[in-house]
Design goal:
This protein has 17 helices and 11 strands. It is α+β, with helices and mostly antiparallel strands. It has 2 domains: 211 residues, Class II aldolase/adducin N-terminal domain (L-fuculose-1-phosphate Aldolase); 158 residues, 3-Layer(aba) Sandwich (L-fuculose-1-phosphate Aldolase).
């Protein structure tokens, strides 16, 4: 992975927050690190004698974030919250907002407490494709532990307070100076340091290790495939009716998509879950699998299957989201992303491209395995993630 840091450019930034914006933008420039709002960053700084955590505001994208995109939160409050045995989402959001020294700033990231308990000035968190691809494999933890012997390895836990509190307990006796980073299986990676450049360098070096592993163990050579036929207009008409609004379709017929869509066991192959939990907000937990002969039948099956998924895991006060698919894998034809506008369709297509590559790579060294259906549902219907999407 290319290191984009420029000492000359960085020297123009004098304050902690200015340098934090600069290195956050560098991380955001790589789709292989963060994609459409993924990941978060922070810096701890003294303001009028009090330690403040400037953490990425919820909903901001690292590639575009500016100083006003960071939420300034009192460290003392966040550290006290980390010690609590229980904390509801509502109370966490209210407590973090009350502890902000600028009420006009955006809501803090749901990972603000976790950033606070890491005892370093600068914290970087990404959803690096290479790292998550390895952890989303059958023997993922074993591979990760070998690659990162000095990292704290954490099994998948729902983001937010539960994750922060668990890491708080895991690290009470941790020698932080000997810890090179944290890897959240099926989720992402943290690096940290008291120096912005060193934390950034650590992220690039750590992700490069994973990329090297994939080059050796999961090199992909695509067959040259000519797409089959498919009635896009009929599909657009049908999906519009089910969605209940106008749709924009984005067709992907790259060789990656065509090889993916030509797998003979597509029903099982392409429905194994998201690459990283946040993606489910855009893609749902699985795509529609169709061909030109079964559009009506498969659409009906998908909607009924989504309703069953919802009824299996929902609480009585939950309202089901639109049950229509957000993307379709069409046998031998390619992948179709479905958005309410062009921007949304392109975002879904980007996420699906990264997922397809991860699935095919993970299958080269044991098999792809995402988070469980229950964990997927909890993320899809988590009120804090829904609020961020809006």
């Amino acid at each position: 992975m290319e290191n984009l840091w420029s000492d000359k450019e960085a020297s123009a930034y004098k304050s902690d927050l200015e340098l934090r914006v600069y290195s956050s933008n560098l991380l955001g420039q790589s789709d292989e690190l963060v994609l459409h709002g993924g990941g978060n960053t922070s810096v701890k700084s003294l303001v009028d004698g009090e330690e403040i955590l400037y953490v990425k505001g919820s909903g901001w994208d690292l590639v575009y974030i500016k100083a006003e995109g960071f939420s300034p939160v009192k460290m003392s409050t966040l550290l006290e919250m980390a010690k609590l045995e229980e904390l509801s989402d509502t109370d966490m959001v209210a407590g973090q907002k009350e502890a902000m020294i600028d009420s006009s700033a955006p809501n803090p990231s749901v990972e603000a407490i976790l950033h606070a308990i890491i005892p370093f000035k600068v914290v970087d968190h990404t959803h690096a494709d290479a790292v998550v691809t390895i952890s989303n494999s059958i023997n993922g933890r074993e591979h990760i532990e070998k690659l990162y012997p000095n990292f704290l390895i954490v099994p998948y836990i729902m983001p937010g307070f539960v994750l922060a509190h668990e890491i708080y307990k895991m690290t009470r006796n941790l020698d932080w100076e000997a810890c090179e980073g944290i890897i959240l299986l099926n989720h992402g990676i943290f690096t940290f340091d008291d120096d912005a450049k060193k934390s950034y360098d650590k992220m690039i070096e750590a992700v490069s290790l994973a990329e090297d592993f994939l080059c050796i163990n999961a090199d992909l050579i695509f067959d040259e495939i000519e797409p089959t036929g498919f009635d896009m207009q009929k599909f657009k008409h049908k999906i519009k009716d089910i969605k209940g609004h106008k749709v924009v379709l984005k067709l992907n017929q790259t060789q990656l998509a065509l090889n993916y869509a030509s797998n003979p066991y597509l029903e099982e192959f392409a429905t194994r879950g998201v690459l990283t939990p946040e993606h489910i907000l855009r893609t749902k937990h699985q795509p529609l699998i169709i061909d030109d002969n079964n559009i009506d039948e498969k659409l009906e099956e998908f909607v009924e299957g989504y309703k069953e998924y919802f009824e299996t895991f929902a609480n009585s006060d939950m309202i089901m989201l639109n049950p229509a698919p957000n993307y379709a894998v069409v046998h031998g034809f390619g992948v179709i992303s479905i958005g309410k506008n062009e921007k949304e369709a392109n975002i879904i297509n980007d996420i699906v491209e990264h997922t397809m590559l991860a699935v095919m790579r993970a299958d080269r060294f044991g098999g792809y395995e995402s988070i469980s259906l229950k964990d997927s549902f909890d993320m899809e219907y988590w009120e804090l993630e829904q609020a961020k999407l809006k």
